[in-house]
Design goal:
The chain is mainly alpha-helical and 211 residues long. The protein is built from eleven helices and two strands. Bound molecules: fe (ii) ion (2 copies).
């Protein structure tokens, strides 16, 4: 049952199984404007990467921008550019499984293969340095037959493992923000997430060429 509490309408139940349809209608109504701000919260959270993994010439936030920039420069579609921007976002809370965390975050909005690529990117990234830290750099080989193998190899080889260069010309976050807003404006669990590959009709570079 809906009631007033501290000057605002709330659902009155204290356990979910006692909520009425009226309660849940109210909650869904109030969730809509909250969910509409997801892109803003994600962009805010991205900034937490400034404070993770010290010791490199660029910090993780700068690395994220540069990974996205490199994907953009290579002509990847907007879905991959945004995935590149967010691929390390889990580093602030789940450093050892940040790929899985980032992949779950974006899953309702991306194709199955982009989700897979972000989820497994730590293993593909390992190809470039695991031999120096006592791990098998060829761990990725178990996925040779996966349809996203080639895309994941390109993502890590050309955009991610190279994105620690302070000299690489990289746009400020403002350049990527509209892309992140378009990304989160997608219907969650809609056609994009049901597709094997990105459905983007606005590849980043096509847009740039049109401007
Ligand atoms: Fe990563
Ligand atoms: Fe990365």
């Amino acid at each position: 049952m809906v009631e007033m509490y501290r000057g605002r309408k709330i659902a009155s139940y204290t356990r979910m199984d006692e909520g009425t349809k009226e309660d849940y209608d109210l909650l869904y109504e109030q969730a809509a404007p909250f969910k509409a701000k997801t892109a803003d919260r994600v962009l805010e959270q991205l900034k937490a990467l400034h404070h993770t993994f010290p010791g490199m010439k660029v910090d993780r936030y700068e690395h994220s921008l540069q990974t996205a920039q490199r994907a953009y420069d290579a002509g990847e579609c907007e879905e991959i550019v945004v995935a590149a921007l967010l691929h390390d976002i889990g580093d602030s809370m789940a450093p050892d499984n940040h790929g899985s965390m980032a992949a779950e975050m974006i899953k309702p909005y991306v194709s199955k293969n982009v989700h897979w690529m972000i989820k497994h990117h730590q293993i593909f990234q390992g190809y470039y340095f695991w031999d120096k830290v006592g791990k098998d750099p060829n761990t990725r080989d178990q996925f040779r037959d996966h349809p996203a193998f080639e895309m994941s190899e390109r993502f890590c080889g050309e955009y991610d493992q190279t994105a620690f260069d302070p000299e690489y010309p990289t746009a400020a976050i403002e350049f990527f923000e509209p892309m992140v807003h378009r990304f989160y404006a997608r219907e969650p669990w809609g056609a994009h997430s049901e597709s094997e590959w990105p459905l983007d009709s606005t590849p980043a570079n096509q847009k740039a060429a049109a401007e």
